[in-house]
């Protein structure tokens, strides 16, 4: 299987005045195409930092991230931006929707930024609007949508270019259980049907159970990884994730 993403001995040191925070202390892993990986760990364990480095939004202090065959440290800023644009869709906790644009226009934005003709994407847009359940609300602006609906717009926006890799930071944060489950099922379907790769940071075991693999971070290090079988009942997977969380909390 093709590897879409690799982290090699990734370290991140934040300097704060006269002291520094070791946010990542040497993280190694690889993600294969079509794989769904959840990253879990206590607050401050380095999850968001890692996601930013994996997507080339920030640079490691040491180590290397290889994204779709590109060694990010060897790219200049412009080349890194293009690699990101062509290979990665981002879903952040604060949806970063443009308030003056409708849901539909926000979803099409990555194509416009990349200078693409959006006409050729009409069918994909309609499919995505349907998948995220927003066909009826495509002409609403963000302030006319609920938090869950805004989150679904952000997810459709991340998927419109059919990126090989989707990086999501707490995609179910602040959502009710039902909407959160629908979002995770949508990401899972994107893996299964379009062979897209997902890396999702979450503190919620109910969200992590949709992954093939859960990576646990603590103090900036990978301390455990477990594989989940999507064929197993949700309750079995949930127990596996929660047992592991409990062990790591000891
Ligand atoms: N820009 C920054 N400057 C300085 N320190 C930072 C910065 N960003 C994160 N940190 C520190 O790095 C460590 C890891 O933070 P990070 O946000 O990656 O953790 P996290 O696991 O995502 O936490 P949470 O679950 O609370 O979002 C923390 O100690 C945090 O305070």
From TrEMBL:
Keywords: ATP-binding, Nucleotide-binding, Transport. GO terms for cellular component: membrane protein complex; plasma membrane. One of its GO terms (molecular function) is ATP binding. Gene3D superfamilies: P-loop containing nucleotide triphosphate hydrolases. The keyword ATP-binding applies. SUPFAM superfamilies: P-loop containing nucleoside triphosphate hydrolases. The keyword Protein transport does not apply. It holds the Pfam family ABC_tran. Residues 5-244 form the ABC transporter domain. It comes from the Bacteria. Signal peptide: none annotated. This is ABC transporter domain-containing protein.
